[in-house]
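TadE family protein: structure tokens wanted.
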Amino acid sequence: MRARLRTRLRWSSRSPRDEGEATELAAIMIGVFALLLLFLMMGVRWVTAEAAQAASQRALEIAQAPSATNPAVDAVARRITAGVLLISGTDVRIGQQEDLVSVTVTAHSPLGGAVSSTATGPRIHFVPQQQSGLHR
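Answer:
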């Protein structure tokens, strides 16, 4: 029996109490990896949402102009989201009512999922200033 114990001690420098440490370390590392992955996904979603919001606001400014065209609004929104490397695709929807214009920009993330942002505002009409008959 002593020979077995000596052989075991020679080949293994760990004590019997240390047997479960590898399993505990693996569980902790999986948890840390999952937490880092969660933070990465939240960061990508946040960047995607910010780009969609910025694109919808800027596209609304273009859409409110008296001479606005749908291709121009679409191009502005796509140009803004194309500048963000974390966005894999963009959809632009323009809604026009009598005096309101709305632009919805949907930005697609490469990790899956999409974020939409809608901006709505009044249509701007150009009203020329009336000239008065008084001259100074």
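The mean pLDDT is 85. The longest strand covers residues 100-108.

Cheers.
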